Amino acid sequence: MSFKLEDLPYQRQAISAVVRLFDGQQRNYFDLQLQGDCFPNRLDLTRQEIVANLEKIAAENGISHGEASICIHPDYLVSYASSKSPDFEQFVSNQFSKLNSKISEADLYGYTKVFGASIHTKFGVLLTSRKDRINNRIGKNICSHYKQILSWRHDYAHAGIKNTTISEAAEFHLYAKRVLFCFDEAFR
After folding, report:
1. Is 188 helix (H, G, I), strand (E, B) or coil?
2. Alpha carbons 60 and 70: distance in angstroms, whole number
3. Are 123 and 108 within 8 A, CB to CB?
4. What residues does each domain of the chain span?
């Protein structure tokens, strides 16, 4: 049996976009210390450099900033906090490492409370509206998809359990990320 693979332009464009996220990264020639039977990965780029690459690629492809967000970007929260007070900025900077791990919908609500009642309320309204709109239109619950993505991530990160497929995770992510978009929008 043989397969005939097509060379599709959109696939090349997608591969190029992923590779270009790491523009500026020096090539690893395996000069790092062998750890066990493998070489470790080393990323020399900063988060800001990767985000700059992402924003450039997104702009070239007509993708808005919100759609291109990978995750909750610390700069949004720290910037907002610094506009309130230096102490609040320091608190948020110190707490961000916790934000970038398993963060439930309830945790997101809790963080919005820290920033004030108006942001907390705005997040609730945005999330409810978007959840209802998507559920009524196509029968998908963005909050349950978000919870499932976190569960799969937790199982894999802490126990090495692979209990989903890439295509299933990608489908769930398509809806789950809407929760984070609402969180981001609440701060604007």
Report:
1. coil
2. 17
3. yes
4. 102-188
